[in-house]
Amino acid sequence: MRFLTFITITILSCATAVAQELFSPNKALKLSFSLSAEGTPVYSLFYKGKEVVKPSRLGIELFSSNEVKFGAEITKKEGVNTSLYHNFEVVNTQNTTVDETWQPVWGESQNIRNHYNELLVSLKQKDTHREMNLRFRLFDDGLGFRYEFPEQKQMPYFVIKEERTEFAMTGDHQAWWIPGDYDTQEYDYQQSRLSEIRAINQKRRQANLAQTGFSDTGVQTALMLKTDDGLYINLHEAALVNYGAMHLNLNDKTFVFQSWITPDANGAKGYMQTPAQTPWRTVIVSDDARDILASDITLNLNEPCALADTSWIHPMKYVGVWWEMITGMKEWSYTYDVPSVHIGKTDYTTLKPHGKHGATTENVKKYIDFAAENGFDGVLVEGWNIGWEDWFGHSKDLVFDFQTPYPDFDIEAIHQYAKSKGIKMIMHHETSSSIRNYERFMDKAYQLMNQYEYPAVKSGYVGNIIPRGENHYSQWVNNHYLYAIKKAADYRIMVNAHEAVRPTGLCRTYPNLIGNESARGGEYQAFGGSKPNHVCVLPFTRLIGGPMDYTPGVFEMDISKNNPNNHSHCNATLANQLALYVTMSSPLQMASDLPENYRRFPDAFQFIKEVALDWSESHYLEAEPGAYITVARKAKGTRNWFIGNTASKDFTSKIHFSFLEPKTTYVATIYADAKDANYKTNPQAYTIQKILVTNKSKLTLHSVAGGGYAISLFPLTDKAQAKGLKKR
Amino acid sequence: MRFLTFITITILSCATAVAQELFSPNKALKLSFSLSAEGTPVYSLFYKGKEVVKPSRLGIELFSSNEVKFGAEITKKEGVNTSLYHNFEVVNTQNTTVDETWQPVWGESQNIRNHYNELLVSLKQKDTHREMNLRFRLFDDGLGFRYEFPEQKQMPYFVIKEERTEFAMTGDHQAWWIPGDYDTQEYDYQQSRLSEIRAINQKRRQANLAQTGFSDTGVQTALMLKTDDGLYINLHEAALVNYGAMHLNLNDKTFVFQSWITPDANGAKGYMQTPAQTPWRTVIVSDDARDILASDITLNLNEPCALADTSWIHPMKYVGVWWEMITGMKEWSYTYDVPSVHIGKTDYTTLKPHGKHGATTENVKKYIDFAAENGFDGVLVEGWNIGWEDWFGHSKDLVFDFQTPYPDFDIEAIHQYAKSKGIKMIMHHETSSSIRNYERFMDKAYQLMNQYEYPAVKSGYVGNIIPRGENHYSQWVNNHYLYAIKKAADYRIMVNAHEAVRPTGLCRTYPNLIGNESARGGEYQAFGGSKPNHVCVLPFTRLIGGPMDYTPGVFEMDISKNNPNNHSHCNATLANQLALYVTMSSPLQMASDLPENYRRFPDAFQFIKEVALDWSESHYLEAEPGAYITVARKAKGTRNWFIGNTASKDFTSKIHFSFLEPKTTYVATIYADAKDANYKTNPQAYTIQKILVTNKSKLTLHSVAGGGYAISLFPLTDKAQAKGLKKR
Q: Cα separation of B701 and B691, whole Å?
């Protein structure tokens, strides 16, 4: 339901070249808009009087086109104007105020307030009479704006050569960034000055052939910045629909970013049909880093839920036949017997299994048992379907059929067993980025899921895109990801897409998109490890667009304990891993480690069993990008709270429980780093302490580097519970 | 059914570098194979002792590749050997003889003899131990050979940079050719010396921006050649499956052609997984041009029918709501009311029709009536479905949904009306080359056809391919065409694909592929006209691969009589148009002109009504590429014969009816050019004459330039029929 509490529209019907000003509802933010002498749109942004974005140009550069008529020769058209970036005049401006509250199907808050002042500037290009509008929405915590192209005879179609949106920074800010790339987001974050990006990118590129950056100063969004006078700025986009993903390219002399859209095989960046619009470009800004995390701008700029019925969408906590493969103990594949697999021809029943296959009926049943014993919702199984012997690196078109199980995976028996235990199975569709192949099998694959009552699918897009030459984040491929989500909704299936384009709040519109990876996930802890700052950056970057299936919960940091051949180390303490369930909120949360590792630490595992997945309130208590995050969240439909803290370096957390219900005593169970905990040498040193707290309580806790803490808070219902517990 | 009458296998198990020789069953053809000093395979071909193909190298050039492993960094692999063209040794050779006869579902003969001697040369590359085989099949009328790549651990996958198959010609032959192009085959044929190709191509390219030739000496296959000493040579390919279409690039100093495969967006020419093979490369050769037309090599080199049940495949003679649009009298579209169409959003019922829409219920019913009155099988309707307002030239992804009729096309009423008249409707699916979009809707589109009992679909691939950067004849897009054919077979639907890759005999394996355009079709007679030689070249080039939906039967050559704004002229006499039904045999034949034009010439139209579509025998009586063709065919399941002759210049045809049954008198109805006929100034001047003939009869007939004649022959069953008829 949607409460529209207040709307004001003021139409200024006079054309004017005078600068327009727009203030946020609380007046903290000010947007200024004008046309340059050349008729180029220019905007700038101020926060509490400080310049955040210096005057920055807006516009689109088009491809020229030839006049093409069916049944005739093609002739070159004279004078095709490729500029949608100058020679404009303002024909109209319109001001609107919206203040409404809406309820997401799942998320960090039960109610989301959408409160902004809007300025719509209607532009007309003087020579071509082409119309382009700029819509600015100024919230208390930032700006969203987009280009809109009304339906018009003079421009029914156009092709984008480049979007020329500038974000002119005021100086050489600190940045938390990953390099621009059309095909992967799975980078470790860098923290550096803007002026240092070029050198770091050049050095890294020499080391890894896979990284195909388009520019030495190209970076991905969401990009987190901090100015020397303490402003936090986040640049991203919202509602990426029918468009290529936006990268930013830095002029490291002027500190001006310009949009750099992911191209297709021809280098074209968007095929547009009017009416059309770009995604929203967002600038979240505050002098308090917590506001960046709390911002709902990205969701608010997306369209309301498009699904009539969402009753089938449920958050899920799950385990999976997965960490065994990620760590190298087991394999996705079944046999070494064939040089390559021919889907539809290779007869697996005649092949000798290599004995390392993870997705066996027997092994899956163990996970089902474990999930049922511990109150989980689901079990993911990877490697269940034929084709894994040669799925990667061969640009193989017919790589999987998404419906034929390996001989040792009895899909019917597993279905019955899971059902008898109250466990839902999570399907896995690795596409190997063979897009057409996946679409060809999609209906049958989803039908198979319906048949065996799998409510959710984890899809994967590892490797180079087929059709070759296309890029993971181009308009055409982005359209595929959304096609898969919409078609899944037709089958009442939830989607958790890995290696797809990073999210931009589309889960508001399609809440069956319950997760994405689209960043360097937990698996890298078994691929050489991630830096301790990683999980303190992700909430400021990747998570701005939506939840991440990060797969936390590693209890055994020494991966060689699982697989002697894997010498990777998970750079985190056990308490840090618990905290991630709260700091990296997601309606889909995995406990990624092996059941036997959880069984070694049943007291700590208790937190994973209890932690909620869906929230009615979230309070960001402490935050600094790359350094620390502390957040308290109230479990939806309950009176219980959960708190998480992660820290990249030694950190003393001081929290006040003022967010709790008044006059209520809570039993707080605190899972914290032990004094001698060390993410490298002593990661499993944790303490568990129970205390009583109220909304007057304060608490100081210490997190080590790569550490953190987690707290569960349950209202005291029986005084006997309080026995022996200290009050704070 | 397949009769395997004789097979001999001789295995030479010794490795040898000595040249191998292979003779055709009748010894007229000799193939020589050897390895060069560098270990490069070399073949040459002789016909009756004359060199046809000089020593020509064979091999494949590969792309280098990096070692890629999932979950690891990519490292450059040292020493990746990109040669599959040298350093080979012969490890085995094997000789086989096959002599079998098989029956096609439809075609030019009821029984096809497949008689060849085969040489299989097994090669191993000395340094890499990679295996590659060459399989040569020598028929009495030509050579087929292909590369085969056995399944092998040392080469499970490879990527083709170029196939290096040479066809070294012995001199500066005459050639009938069209320029190499990755996206269109709809060219007028050129006749020139090989040495003249470059200049002609350069000149043409300047005149037309749409033609994107890759080389000034690139030509398409099937390529027809004639040597100065009277040998006819045809170069083409058979069984183009999972590979890019082959062009030929000429070295016009040495007259050596080299294969030039259609690339993808990355320039790669084939992604191969062993076991694999290339299509067959064919060299049809004779000193009698009629043998080129009669050759069954292309079909014989394809796999037997893959469909278990073919009872639903039937030849069809049809009319259509089509020529009205081609000539510009009517339009495919419905309205001018919108700048562009949004499929699924645009509400046509609210739009003003422009009144020129061809596919109205009323108009379709007229064609159904006409078809029923004249014994036709079907009616094609183009422009029945929404989206035609802006389907072309905009690189529009969601361009059609293949299922929503325009408001004035009542699909249910038309279905019922057609059914009541015994007429089958032919569906039309223009894809605008938006491949993914078509595949997304394909099941629903075919289901709609089943629902309304459409037995056949004409599909179109006009415009640039989406995904952008792909080419019409690349491996990936060729795979789509075959996907569409196979899926159609699942729905018992016959396919007639226009603008798809030119055929290579795949109709043997998938006989529901009842037609292709894939060349400059009859429609160009309304787009400025085609040259009179065109239909005398096509049987030697385009038709080598399979039947063409040429859409003959134009009776009104002055297109301005249909549409005063169209000043095109059909460069043919009316008798020539009749002859095409026999000279350009196809199981799918259209009578393309307007019913009112047929009604003006009922006596001539009688031939179109009577002519058969499927044959038990074909006898090529006279032939010269680009000049004239005379063929007699016996209608399958009957005792009736039909003869056609077309001539590009004045031609005196002398035929002997020796192919007729002995001791039988036939009533021959001869539709010939009148003496004063002229394809430009007097095209409708024809004579119709009835005579009696037997297998002893001879006949001399005169065809004017752009003219021809057609003859129907029915056994005399009632002596009364013979009254007044002369005997020959």
A: 13
Q: Which two tokens stand for residue B406?
A: 């325009």
Contact A296, A198 (CB under 8 A): no
CATH topology for the A313-519 domain = TIM Barrel (3.20.20)
Spell out which residues of chain A touch residue B151, defining contact as CB-CB under 8 Å. Answer: 339-340
- Eight-class DSSP state of A485: H
Q: State how far Cα B708 lies from the chain centre.
A: 22
- Using a CB-CB cut-off of 8 Å, the residues of chain A touching B390 are 156-157
**Contacts A–B by Cβ distance under 8 A:** 142
Residue A179 exposed, middle or buried by CB count within 10 Å (0-12, 13-18, 19+):
buried
Q: What is the ipTM of this complex?
A: 0.94
- For the CA atoms of B697, B702, B706, B712, what is the dihedral angle to 10 degrees? -30
Give B277-327 as a 3 state SS string. ECCEEEEEEECCHHHHHHCCHHHHCCCCCCCCCCCCCCCEEEEEECHHHHC
| Chain B (518-537) residues lying within 8 Å, Cβ to Cβ, of chain A | 523, 527
Indicate if the alpha-carbon torsion angle A212, A217, A222, A224 is positive or negative: positive
Local structure of A219: helix, strand or coil: strand
Collapsing DSSP to helix, strand or coil, B575 comes out as helix
CATH 3.40.710.10 given to domain B20-301: no
Q: Which two tokens stand for residue A349?
A: 């029943």
Nearest to B395 among A74, A152, A271 (CB): A271
Give the whole-angstrom CA distance, residue B17 versus residue A247.
Answer: 59
The whole-angstrom separation of Cα B670 and Cα B701 is 9
CATH 3.20.20.70 correct for B524-727: yes
Q: Which A residues in the span 633-652 are in contact with B, Cβ-Cβ below 8 Å?
A: none
Q: Which of B366, B411, B414 is nearest to B386 (CA)?
A: B411
Query: How far, in Å, CA of A318 to CA of A589, rounded?
Result: 6
Q: Mention every residue, 6+ apart, whose C-beta is less than 8 A from residue B171.
A: B227, B228, B255
Q: Is the pLDDT of residue A632 over 80?
A: yes
Q: Tell me the Ramachandran region of residue B49: left when phi exceeds 0, alpha when psi lies from -120 to 50, beta otherwise.
A: left
| Cβ atoms B113, B100 nearer than 8 A | yes
| Matching fold, domains A20-301 and A524-727 | no
Structure tokens at A67: 């006049």
pLDDT at position A368 over 60: yes
Residue A683, preceding peptide bond in cis (omega within 30° of 0): no
pLDDT means per 10 residues in chain B (728 residues)? 48 58 98 98 98 98 71 51 96 98 98 98 97 98 98 96 98 97 95 97 72 84 98 98 98 98 96 98 98 98 98 98 98 97 97 98 98 98 98 96 98 98 98 98 98 98 96 98 98 98 98 97 96 98 98 98 97 98 98 98 98 98 98 98 98 98 97 98 98 97 98 93 86
Q: What share of chain B is helix, strand, coil (3-state, %, to 5)?
A: 20, 35, 45
CA distances, B242 to each of A397, A502, B61, B245, B272 (Å): 11, 34, 18, 10, 8
State how far the Cα of B295 lies from the Cα of B283, in Å rounded to an integer: 11
Largest CA distance in chain B: 90
Give the pLDDT score at B35: 98
Which ranges in B65-216 belong to alpha helices (H)? 197-207
DSSP string of B64-83, one letter each residue? P--B--TTS--BPPTT---E
Domain boundaries, chain A: 20-301, 313-519, 524-727
Q: How far is the C-alpha of A353 from the C-alpha of A565, rounded, in Å?
A: 21
8 A C-beta contact, residue B313 and residue B105 = yes
Contact B632, B709 (CB under 8 A): no
Query: In this complex, is the C-beta atom of A412 within 8 Å of any C-beta atom belonging to chain B?
Result: no
pTM: 0.95
Contact B144, B137 (CB under 8 A): yes
